[in-house]
Amino acid sequence: MSITPARGEVVLQPNYFTSSVYVNALRDDISTLVFRYHEAYSQSGCTKPFALFKAVWLNLGWNWLQFKVFDSRSRQTFLEVTLRLFLERAVKTEAPFTRAVALFGVYLFYYTQVKDTAPALYCLENIPIPCGTSCKLCIEDHYLSLIAMPESLTSPNVLPLQTHIRYILSCLKRDHVFFILPKSELYPMNPRELPREIYAENGGGLSDQTAQKRKGRPARREKGKKARQALESLDEWSLEDHAEQMNDAVADYEASKAVMLDEIPPGSVDSVTRVVVDGLKDVTGGDGAGIDVIAESGIFGLVGKKDLAETLGKRII
User: Fold this and answer.
1) Surface-to-core class of residue 61, CB atoms within 10 Å of its CB (0-12 exposed, 13-18 middle, 19+ buried)
2) Are strands 178-181 and 127-130 parallel, antiparallel or unpaired?
3) What whole-number distance in Å separates Cα of residue 282 and Cα of residue 84?
4) I want to staple 195 with a disulfide (CB 3.0 to 4.6 A). Which of 15, 23, 280, 316 is the partner?
């Protein structure tokens, strides 16, 4: 009997492939693929564009990408995200050459999925594609613009790619590869946007406001920083003219006060005044000229009489 504790296998989780760690890196790799193929394609004597693309594909190690993950749940996300990022470069707003290379990548990656293995690996049957592009400048249907791509390859530098693009699109249509989704305005893709998770290395992406406070007393440096910020904000506030705001606030207060007084039933103010006066007499022992003023003018007549309010406050204390 083995005493070694059982350990589970280390598996990349699906959220890894929707995070910025994988998405940003793959976008850069796709750009590198387009650049390297453009360098090789620009050389004179290129008679087999797709064969050249496969050579660049193998030279950059794209054939090993199929073995990135074997877990079915993670593999599904991996395949969907990878093909989705290729389709991002095939929208109408991209250059015709870039669109053709992206479609080459979709075709080669999809049809080189590992099949007939034991145990069986997950294979993606359909590629989700929105009915409209995610680009605001391009309102044409994404799927239809993809099907009409050969008509855009008319310039002399991309004309040799036209026949290959026609064949690839015919294969994808024949095998019913694309799964048509609603317009991208409704965000039908899952996840809604890529990347979904943002990786912040060593907390560098976190702001000072969202960072957790340290335990214990703040350091002298932090105290000085907060004091400087408070002083700067006070200087900015003192330079501003708040007279207009104060006048507006006073006008709003007086209007609200008038509305409130109109809604109070007759005699209610006098009864409240008597209650306040009796309470003040109990507190002050009946001493104070201010109490007589309240009894004469009413409790709502104290507004604006700062000296009287301060006098009453001192006597109560």
Assistant:
1) exposed
2) parallel
3) 80
4) 23
Under a CB-based contact definition with an 8 Å cutoff, are residues 127 and 169 in contact? no
Which sign, positive or negative, has the C-alpha torsion 124, 179, 105, 185? negative
β-bridge partners, 132: 141
Cα 246 to Cα 250, 252, 259, 302, distances in angstroms: 6, 10, 20, 20
Is-above-0.90 flag for pTM? Answer: no
Any idea where the domains of the chain sit in the sequence? 14-186
Q: Encoding tokens for residue 151?
A: 């008509």
pLDDT tens-digit profile of 40-66?
998 867 789 999 999 999 999 999 999
Q: From 300, 282, 302, 274, select the one nearest 290 (Cα to Cα).
A: 302
Taking the C-alpha atoms of residue 66 and residue 109, their distance in angstroms, rounded to an integer, is 8
Q: Tell me which H or E stretch contains 128.
A: strand 127-130
Dihedrals φ, ψ of 204, to 5°? -70, -25
Q: Give the separation between CA 34 and CA 62, rounded to whole angstroms.
A: 13
CB atoms within 10 A of CB 262: 7
More confident residue, 314 or 30: 30
Dist CA 12 CA 73 (whole Å): 10
CA 309, 310, 312, 317 torsion-angle sign: positive
Tens-place pLDDT, residues 187-212: 888 888 889 988 887 655 544 444 56
Residue whose C-alpha is closest to residue 54's, from 105, 124, 88: 105
